[in-house]
């Protein structure tokens, strides 16, 4: 039984991008919900891709998050696998930024003034991922 109204991989990716942008600008789910006139639980459902986002709601979200609607759809021209595994470089970035840790890490990394120190941080992270046992990454 295939319900065409059920959320799909694109809906999940849109929700993830809403969350990424919201975290990027430091907005809470409660604040976004208030701006949209919905409950924070509804915002959670949008961000998890449980509920589809109607075009008019996406327009309101776009305005509230000060992000052009087109940015939510960037790179979605191809088929998105239902597994949710990021396939393109941009998807990996979106996946990382969708987490509070990823967003915080990016903000802290961007605040490092020294190019040498930024390179050292990258090398440290690279070393940590190489030392991580298979299956423990991510």
What does this structure look like?
It is a single chain. This protein is mainly α. It folds into two domains: 1-82, Orthogonal Bundle (434 Repressor (Amino-terminal Domain)), CATH 1.10.260; 99-138. It is 62% helix and 0% strand. It is built from eight helices and no strands. α2 crosses α3. The longest helix has 17 residues, at 115-131.
Give the SSE layout.
Elements: H1 9-24, H2 29-36, H3 40-48, H4 55-64, H5 69-73, H6 89-97, H7 100-110, H8 115-131
Helix pairs in contact: 1-3, 2-3
In short:
The chain has 138 residues and is mostly helical. It has helices at 9-24, 29-36, 40-48, 55-64, 69-73, 89-97, 100-110, 115-131. Residues 80-87 have low confidence and may be disordered.
């Amino acid at each position: 039984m295939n319900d065409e109204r059920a959320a799909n991989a694109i809906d999940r990716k849109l929700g993830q991008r809403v969350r990424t942008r919201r975290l990027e600008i430091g907005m809470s789910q409660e604040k976004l919900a208030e701006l949209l006139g919905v409950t924070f639980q509804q915002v959670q459902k949008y961000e998890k891709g449980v509920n589809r986002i109607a075009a008019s709601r996406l327009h309101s979200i776009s305005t509230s998050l000060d992000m052009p609607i087109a940015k939510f759809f960037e790179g979605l021209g191809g088929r998105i696998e239902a597994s949710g595994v990021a396939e393109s470089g941009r998807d990996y970035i979106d996946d990382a930024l969708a987490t509070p840790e990823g967003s915080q890490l990016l903000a802290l990394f961007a605040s490092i003034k020294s190019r040498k120190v930024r390179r050292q941080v990258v090398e440290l992270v690279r070393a940590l991922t190489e030392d991580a046992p298979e299956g423990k990454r991510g």
